[in-house]
From TrEMBL, chain A:
<keyword id="KW-0762">Sugar transport</keyword>
<dbReference type="InterPro" id="IPR000515">
    <property type="entry name" value="MetI-like"/>
</dbReference>
<dbReference type="InterPro" id="IPR052730">
    <property type="entry name" value="Sugar_ABC_transporter"/>
</dbReference>
<feature type="transmembrane region" description="Helical">
    <location>
        <begin position="109"/>
        <end position="131"/>
    </location>
</feature>
<feature type="transmembrane region" description="Helical">
    <location>
        <begin position="12"/>
        <end position="35"/>
    </location>
</feature>
<dbReference type="Pfam" id="PF00528">
    <property type="entry name" value="BPD_transp_1"/>
</dbReference>
<protein>
    <submittedName>
        <fullName>Multiple sugar transport system permease protein</fullName>
    </submittedName>
</protein>
TrEMBL record, chain B:
<dbReference type="InterPro" id="IPR003593">
    <property type="entry name" value="AAA+_ATPase"/>
</dbReference>
<dbReference type="GO" id="GO:0016887">
    <property type="term" value="F:ATP hydrolysis activity"/>
</dbReference>
<dbReference type="GO" id="GO:0055052">
    <property type="term" value="C:ATP-binding cassette (ABC) transporter complex, substrate-binding subunit-containing"/>
</dbReference>
<dbReference type="Pfam" id="PF00005">
    <property type="entry name" value="ABC_tran"/>
</dbReference>
<keyword id="KW-0067">ATP-binding</keyword>
<keyword id="KW-0813">Transport</keyword>
<dbReference type="InterPro" id="IPR027417">
    <property type="entry name" value="P-loop_NTPase"/>
</dbReference>
Automatic annotation (TrEMBL), chain C:
<feature type="transmembrane region" description="Helical">
    <location>
        <begin position="196"/>
        <end position="221"/>
    </location>
</feature>
<feature type="transmembrane region" description="Helical">
    <location>
        <begin position="84"/>
        <end position="108"/>
    </location>
</feature>
<dbReference type="InterPro" id="IPR050901">
    <property type="entry name" value="BP-dep_ABC_trans_perm"/>
</dbReference>
<feature type="domain" description="ABC transmembrane type-1">
    <location>
        <begin position="84"/>
        <end position="274"/>
    </location>
</feature>
<keyword id="KW-0812">Transmembrane</keyword>
<dbReference type="GO" id="GO:0005886">
    <property type="term" value="C:plasma membrane"/>
</dbReference>
<feature type="transmembrane region" description="Helical">
    <location>
        <begin position="12"/>
        <end position="37"/>
    </location>
</feature>
């Protein structure tokens, strides 16, 4: 890149004038809340009656959270959910993306159509699948019974509900993996494949030894973004399971919302939110470092 | 090792004929260079031999066996591409042994071959590095090592040196020629650079507009070009061309006053009966102090030691070499008789003249 | 012959791949199609088992969404149309403001080097990463204190916040595609930087601004987490309304299906407009910059 324009006096004015609204907004909407969140997490108080004041609690909120089996249960559930849906999305997305590399009639149209689910509101997705997964009159169980299996109470039992949620998240977000995977595959020059063909490598060998490793940097971005998004998943569970049956499908995000807005244990909710933030920011840091490495290589 | 034969090979892309009815046979261990301007069909021919492009019609034979339906991997060929085709995520060593690994060759055998090829290409220091860390020239060397490691019957090279800087190219060219003779592998090399073709080839296949123009040894293609195109494409600076007009006592150069007399003309030209063009390379068109034609010299200039001059005949500007002694007079233009080539003006084919210098 | 065996094998694997792709397409597009079909069913047909593929179309779901016809007076329908209006207003205004801010910030980030630029860009990126519920713990109190809870203004603020980072990154990408010489020539000819930006550069990124607006609108339109917690009665967006659409007889599926389709339609329209920029928009401009 050539050198940037010199920030002379008008330039400096422009920088300040153009950036300050956004900076102010973000300070107010991101920095201030996060700062307050950390602050609250050391206090016992409830947003219901803030006038009652805030009692210093030290680390007790954190101690309580880390010793509470209910919270651990939610972390374990979130972990299972993340693992399941991200694995399914990655495999499915890479496969479909690979298949869509080949040209055939109507490919571009199909590709565009396949992108649709990720553009939908998670609430619509959640309710739509809740409707389809109904144990009595849902179309999924109808198909299940067509193949001669017994109907499954998908959303009424903890185990199937986890799978159902993962299937719905996979439905929504596999297109995202397809989108990134095809972009990554397109970036591999044709001669690389020709060389491999002449060298006598089978299609599977080429896929695992050349296509996958060479698209790894982009697929890694896809992976991290999906880890972040599925780890903080909230909307989908509100619409699909409402956290149930019981509390078996409550994610960490769900637990933060419930603690803060149903029980109004604001201090405790803040502490849990801080833990959630740290995990997400850790993943984000990995992503940012990866991106700057990628940038440096170009 | 293999003999290769192309029989009536044609390749079409839609309405475009990339290769048009090509016939050629290449001997075992021969080094053949396909030469021609871009888009002439030389690379397409090479890719058809590799199996990366399907022949529309005609046969490709290896040792008399038709290979049209075989996949590239089943043809026992190796290929080096114009743009670097190394796998960026593999080390140099892993790149070189890739063809062996892909075919499931035993580990000990792989190690032995790697040792051998490392020695041949002097790649010992680079083995653990990645392609990105190497200059383009070295990368092509690795690509070449990868190509020869499994003793292919045919080595196909698609402009392998064109992306390398000038200095390293000379060296690589020499090494490549040396290596080919040592291995004795049948080699087909595609280039648009006549110097590469002249210095490497046993035979040159000159292509233009999807057809073969001439197949000959480098010397012969230079001294006995089959057509105007061959004469002009090979040799630098390029050959001068002038239409000849029949007049009393010989042939006149365009609308000039220069008339080539019987002494300068080969027999048979006078009786050709159709328009004739003269081709003469600058080295055979000399400005001398002694005998010659009187012509108005336009300009003289020097390129290093060599001095050149130009003059006009009608619209055409002709270039020759200046052989006058320093500080000489006006000079006269001499046509070296052995250097004169006569082409049919319509078909472009050579009808007389040319030939190796005695 | 190895050739023929290989060909048979290649043939077989090609068919298997094609069948798998077909199955995936059904999994991917089937549910959306099913939603559209279901939205036209009467309540009785909706619960029919086996599901009916041939049925008398029934528009009661849509009637209640748009507050017309027989559904007008039924208690359950009240507010769905209001929610639709809330969604339209909030998404439109929020998108406009976010794109305006993002265009300014994106231009500066594309054209100038200044201290803290990297930090700013990361700061902006963080809006994509933040778990909504985390900041909501604080917003909930802040909005109450500032009187923003359950108001359109509060929702607009959220819509801007959700999108301003995205808009900045995407617009930076589009500005990067405009050669710097455009401004340099203008400045050499005595025009001001502001003039160059407004009259020369902006017209060159019109398409980019439209694409950015398309993305912002979709995200604002779909936004649920913030709206569900920060609004209670007066200012419910359509996604929030859907999530609370349960009446005396349980979940109002006819309404939900129709509202779902109504929610999807603008998304379809904008999605079509931005389809070429999907990679850029979905990765926060990290990939797919041209």
């Amino acid at each position: 890149m050539d050198t940037a324009l010199k920030p002379r006096s008008t330039g400096r004015l422009m920088i300040v004038g153009f950036l300050s609204p956004t900076v102010l907004l973000l300070l107010f909407m991101v920095a201030y809340p996060i700062f307050s969140l950390v602050h609250y997490s050391f206090y016992n108080f409830s947003a219901l009656n803030p006038d009652k004041g805030m009692d210093w609690a030290g680390l007790s909120n954190y101690e309580y959270l880390l010793s509470d089996s209910g919270i651990w249960k939610r972390f374990v559930f979130t972990g299972k959910f993340v693992f399941l849906c991200v694995t399914m999305q990655m495999i499915l997305g890479i496969f479909v993306g690979y298949r869509l590399q080949k040209t055939f009639r109507g490919r571009d149209l199909l590709f565009t159509a396949l992108m649709l689910p990720m553009m939908l509101s998670p609430v619509v997705a959640g309710f739509l699948w809740r409707y389809m997964l109904n144990s009595e009159w849902g179309v999924v169980n109808f198909l299940v019974s067509l193949f001669g299996f017994a109907k499954v109470d998908w959303l009424g039992q903890a185990g199937p509900a986890l799978w159902a949620a993962a299937v719905v998240d996979t439905w929504m977000w596999t297109p995202f993996i397809i989108l990134l995977a095809t972009a990554a595959f397109r970036g591999i020059p044709e001669t690389i494949y020709e060389a491999a063909e002449v060298d006598g490598a089978s299609a599977a060998y080429v896929f695992f030894r050349i296509t996958l490793p060479m698209s790894a940097p982009v697929l890694f971005i896809a992976l991290i973004l999906r880890l972040i998004d599925s780890f903080k998943q909230y909307d989908l569970f509100v619409a699909l399971t409402g956290g149930g049956p019981g509390s078996s499908t409550e994610t960490v995000s769900f637990a933060v919302a419930k603690t803060a807005f149903s029980y109004f244990y604001t201090g405790e909710a803040s502490a849990l939110a801080v833990i959630l933030l740290c995990i997400i920011m850790g993943l984000a840091m990995i992503l940012v470092r990866h991106l700057s490495n990628m940038g440096a290589r170009h | 090792m293999a003999r290769i034969e192309l029989r009536n090979l044609s390749i079409r892309f839609g309405a475009f004929k990339a290769v048009d009815d090509v016939n050629l046979s290449i001997g075992d261990g021969e080094f053949v260079v396909y030469l021609g301007p871009s888009g002439c069909g030389k690379t397409t021919t090479l890719r058809a031999i590799a199996g990366l492009v399907d022949a529309t019609s005609g046969d490709i034979l290896f040792d008399g066996r038709r290979v049209n339906e075989l996949r590239p991997s089943e043809r026992n060929i190796a290929m080096v591409f114009q743009f670097v085709s190394l796998y960026p995520h593999l080390t140099i060593a892993e790149n070189i042994v890739f063809p062996l690994r892909a075919r499931g060759v035993a580990r000990a055998e792989i190690a032995r071959k790697l040792d051998w090829v490392t020695g041949v290409f002097r790649l010992g220091d680079e083995l653990r590095r990645y392609p990105g860390a190497l200059p383009p020239g070295a990368r092509q060397k690795v690509a070449l090592a990868r190509a020869v490691i499994r003793d292919p019957a045919v080595l196909l090279l698609d402009e392998p040196l064109s992306a390398i800087d000038e200095q390293f190219r000379e060296e690589m060219r020499w090494e490549l020629g040396h290596l080919q003779r040592e291995l004795g592998v049948t080699t087909i090399y595609v280039t648009h650079d006549q110097r590469e073709a002249m210095s490497l080839a046993d035979r040159i296949v000159l292509m233009n507009h999807s057809k073969i123009v001439q197949v000959a040894e480098p010397d012969r293609i230079f001294f006995e070009p089959a057509s105007v195109f061959a004469g002009q494409f090979i040799g630098s600076p390029s050959m001068n061309l002038v239409d000849l007009v029949p007049v009393a006592g010989g042939l006149r150069l365009g609308d000039s006053t220069v008339v080539l007399g019987a002494a300068e003309l080969p027999s048979g030209i006078a009786g050709h009966g159709r328009p004739v063009r003269l081709g003469v390379r600058p080295r055979d068109l000399r400005l001398v102090d002694g005998e010659g034609h009187a012509l108005a010299v336009d300009d003289t200039f020097a390129v290093g030691r060599e001095r050149f001059f130009t003059f006009r005949i009608g619209e055409a500007i002709l270039q020759g070499t200046d052989h006058r002694r320093a500080g000489g007079g006006e000079g006269r233009v001499r046509f070296v008789p052995e250097g004169l080539m006569f082409f049919d003006a319509e078909s472009g084919l050579r009808i007389a003249g040319g030939g190796r210098p005695a | 012959m190895t050739a023929t065996r290989n060909q048979a094998y290649a043939h077989l694997s090609r068919w298997i791949l094609l069948v798998l792709l077909g199955l995936y397409t059904i999994y991917n597009l089937g549910p959306i199609l099913w939603l559209m079909i279901s939205s036209l069913k009467s309540r009785a047909d909706l619960f029919a088992m086996p599901p009916k593929l041939v049925f008398e179309p029934d528009f009661s779901g849509y009637q209640s969404v748009f507050g017309v016809g027989a559904a007008r007076d039924s208690a359950s329908s009240v507010g769905v149309f209001d929610s639709l209006m809330t969604s339209v207003f909030v998404s439109t205004v929020g998108t406009t403001v976010a794109v305006f801010l993002g265009t300014l910030a994106g231009y500066v980030c594309s054209r100038f080097e200044f201290r803290g630029k990297g930090d700013f860009m990361f700061f902006v990126l963080s809006t994509r990463m933040l778990p909504p519920v985390a900041v909501l713990v604080f917003y909930h109190m802040m909005f109450a204190r500032l009187g923003l809870a359950d108001t359109w203004l509060g929702l607009v603020l959220i819509a801007v916040f959700v999108n301003v980072g995205l808009a900045t990154w995407i617009m930076k990408g589009f500005f990067d595609g405009v050669p710097k010489e455009v401004e340099q020539i203008a400045i050499v000819n005595g025009y001001s930087r502001i003039y160059a930006f407004l009259r020369l550069v902006l017209p060159m990124v019109k398409g980019g601004i439209a694409a950015t607006a398309g993305f912002c609108f979709i995200f604002a339109w779909n936004e649920f987490a913030f709206a569900s917690i920060l609004t209670t009665t007066r200012a419910k967006t359509l996604p929030v309304k859907i999530s609370t659409a349960s009446g005396a007889t349980g979940i109002e599926w006819t309404q939900i299906c129709a509202a779902g389709v109504v929610l999807i339609i603008p998304v379809l329209v904008f999605f079509y407009l931005i389809r070429r920029h999907l990679l850029m928009g979905m990765t926060f401009g990290v990939l797919g910059r041209r």
